[in-house]
Every structure is written in C-alpha cells, then in structure tokens.
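User: Please run a holo structure prediction.
Assistant: Happy to. Please share the sequence and the ligand.
User: Here you go; the ligand is 5-O-phosphono-beta-D-ribofuranosylamine.
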Amino acid sequence: MRLKIAVFVSGKGSNLSAIIKAIEDGALGASIVCVVSNNPDAYGLTVAREHGLEVFALSHKGLSRQEHEAKIVEHLQGLGVDFVVLAGYMRVLTSHFLNAFKDADGFFRVINIHPALLPSFKGANGYEDAFAYGVKVSGITVHLVDEEVDHGPILAQRAFPRLADDTIETFKQRGLEVEHALYPEVLAAIANHGIHSLLLNSLKTVRT
Ligand code: GRF
C-alpha cells in the first residue's frame, strides 16, 4: 500500500529531505500529500516547494492553539492522510487535533521523531540535554504521539555513541544521520507491514 502522509515542519526540514529522498529512491512507498508548517519562513517549506509538494503554511501567531489546529485539520480533510509525520514541528498538539486522527484501535495516527532515547531527555533540546548530562550512549526515538509531550508507544529506537572528543555539534551530527536513516525506515515498515508490526504485543491496542 502507498502510505499517504502529511509532514509537519517548523525548521530546516532535514528529516523531510530524508523522507523525500527515500520516496524518490523507491525505498519508501509513500506519498507526501501536504507539508504543513506553523512557520511560514521554515526552510523545510522551501525544500517541499523545490520538490513540487503541496504546502500549507499557517503561523500560529494571533490564533488560539485550538483555532490554529482546527484550520490545519480542515485543510487536511479530504486529502486522505494515513499518518501525520512530525519532523521538527515545534508545537504541542492538543487532543482536538489528535482526535481528528484517531485510529479504530484507539491510537492516534500521528508519529514523532525525538532526538534522545525516550523516556530520557524529553523536551525541545534532546541533543543538548543528553550531551550536557554526559551520557555515553544516546539515541533516536520514533513514537506514536499521545496527549503527553514526547510520550506514546515507541515504534523504533536506535542508539549512537557519544565519543570522548565530541562537541555538541559532532554529537548532534551523528544523531541526525541516525534520524535520517531511521525515520524513512520506520515509515517504510508501516507502509509495507502496517503500524501493528512495530508495536509490542502489549501495546497492540494502546488505548480505548
Ligand atoms: C530533529 O532533531 C528532530 O528529532 C526534532 O527536531 C529536529 C528537526 O530537524 N524533533 P529537521 O528540521 O528535520 O532538520
């Protein structure tokens, strides 16, 4: 099945680029039906336009959280989105948004990538916080989103080392390379085998 995804970005969109490349290379059977951003200046939107993708940019400024989310949901309606893929989207989504993507099994069809091994180092500065803590191993988590920030059933995790002579820049660069491989791989697994293939047995129905 060809997975229909909407990718949400707020910044440079390097994960979006990796997903686009995987699709163009034939490694990921998906179509990006829309790239959404709350930041009209996000470089990720430029990436999307360069690849001929539809974009929907709507600043959250001057709108309530609920109004902003409602306009995005309204825009996505009718596009047949199977999964919302958060790729550096710097807005917390409320249950109003999530409920628009509720699966019959009870989970939300919204996926996030976080630059640390959850449940460690939640929040907007995963790389910086893990580095400052002095971890010797860190990693990347791809997970289903729920109402809590950086929380929800884990779909995949991949570790990478922090080397003795790392700076925050080299540490982050190593992590981003993992992100760019892992996110397309997870999406390809969903496209090929379904979301349940990535959930642990105990989490096959995650919520009622
Ligand atoms: C990534 O580190 C991702 O894990 C986090 O936000 C960053 C987005 O980077 N959620 P980019 O915009 O994909 O380059």
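The CA atoms of residues 118 and 141 lie 6 Å apart.
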